[in-house]
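Summary of Year 1 activities. Much of the first year was spent building the evaluation harness for sequence design. The harness presents a backbone, in tokenized form, and records the residue chosen at every position. We chose the following record to illustrate the format because it has been used consistently in internal testing since the harness was completed.
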């Protein structure tokens, strides 16, 4: 073997690859365009132009937003309106009872119930029957029909209600009209925030709609509305308790759906008996 060939074999062969920066970079759907200028002599050899989505809007897009998306536009106007209300409102002093617009709207009903304890007790008993209807239907969907979503949603809801109700214990309204026939029966203490009466009714109504039981769902919604009026009239709940009760029913029904979907996946992976009691 010659010296020339030996030298040729001992020299390693290397390849150098030069990486070029991309011309476009997208971060969260915002495009940054590379405008490399070979003629500039500045130290910054690359300049990036900002191509935001809003810069491509046209007048037609703006009017189309108002035409095809009126609900978000309404919420935007409402945001500005309530910002003005909030920042100019006189705060309720600590020595005064809370202001509740629901109490104002039902003042005349409160006077009627205060003047007639028998009527108040009768309405409280009917409301307790409605709570029993909610409970019976929700348990029926699981035990008889094998659809546990409403039951899981109710368990989620009452657990969260217990945590929040204990964490912030609101004062009982001064004009509260109690009754031994009201649920929970026996004039026992209860959490004001948030209304389990309303949330449970919403969970049951949503399940009825899924099963296309439209008449039964309409009945529950009507009774729930009457329940709201009664609870405001007796000062059993603040308006915010009832409003959050509606939202809580929807929220925990959605969370129960996610849980059940995951439970079905686990059942398919682990075997047919792992989640048998909660399979739907």
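For this record, the design step produced the sequence shown next.
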């Amino acid at each position: 073997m010659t010296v020339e060939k030996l030298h040729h074999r001992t020299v390693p062969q290397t390849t150098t690859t030069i990486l070029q920066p991309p011309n476009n970079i997208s971060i969260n759907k915002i495009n940054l365009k590379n405008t490399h200028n070979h003629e500039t002599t500045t130290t910054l050899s690359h300049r990036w132009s900002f191509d935001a989505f809003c810069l491509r809007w046209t007048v037609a897009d703006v009017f189309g937003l108002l035409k095809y998306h009126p609900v978000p536009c309404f919420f935007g106007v409402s945001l500005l309106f309530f910002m003005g209300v909030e920042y100019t409102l006189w705060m309720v002093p600590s020595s005064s009872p809370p202001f509740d617009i629901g109490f104002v709207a039902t003042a005349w009903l409160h006077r009627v119930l205060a003047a007639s304890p028998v009527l108040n007790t009768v309405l409280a008993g009917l409301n307790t029957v409605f709570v029993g209807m909610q409970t019976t239907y929700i348990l029926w969907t699981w035990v008889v029909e094998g659809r546990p979503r409403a039951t899981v949603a109710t368990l989620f809801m009452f657990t969260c209600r217990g945590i929040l109700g204990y964490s912030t214990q609101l004062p009982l309204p001064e004009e509260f009209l109690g009754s031994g026939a009201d649920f929970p029966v026996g004039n026992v203490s209860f959490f004001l925030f948030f209304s389990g009466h309303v949330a449970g009714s919403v969970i049951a109504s949503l399940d009825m709609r899924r099963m296309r039981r439209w008449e039964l769902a309409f009945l529950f919604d009507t009774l729930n509305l009457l329940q709201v009026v009664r609870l405001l009239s007796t000062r059993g709940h603040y308006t915010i308790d009832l409003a959050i009760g509606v939202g809580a029913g929807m929220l925990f029904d959605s969370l129960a759906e996610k849980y059940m979907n995951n439970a079905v996946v686990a059942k398919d992976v682990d075997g047919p008996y792992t989640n048998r009691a909660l399979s739907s």
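Strands lie at 24-27, 30-34, 48-51. Quantitative recovery figures across the full test set are reported in Table 2.
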